[in-house]
Amino acid sequence: MTEEHQEGVSIEEGPVPVLRWDLGLFEQIVRSFRFPPEWDARYSAQNQTTANAPPGRGFWGCDSYIMLFEDFFLQGNFRLPATNFMGHILHHYNFHLSQMSPPGMVRVRHFEFLC
């Protein structure tokens, strides 16, 4: 195993590389996709995962914040606010947004565009 130091924190890597958010990229996504301040977009803390997202204010009917990966926006062409069609698809298949992969997101968006 290799060990890297980032911002003074030791990170051990296994067979799968550790995904690293970049604060600059996060700020760029928030700015370029025009997230309104009331969404309270937050940069995830070191060691924070989707399993321990902080309690929220009920955005999209959730009791906590949702964690989205940069690939949703950059590779999956996902945009917020999401369309009603996306909400209906997720509801119909009993999926949560966090269960979608970027390629799956592209397929749904492409299908919506064609319809």
Automatic annotation (TrEMBL):
It comes from the Eukaryota. This is Uncharacterized protein. The lineage of its organism: Eukaryota, Viridiplantae, Streptophyta, Embryophyta, Tracheophyta.
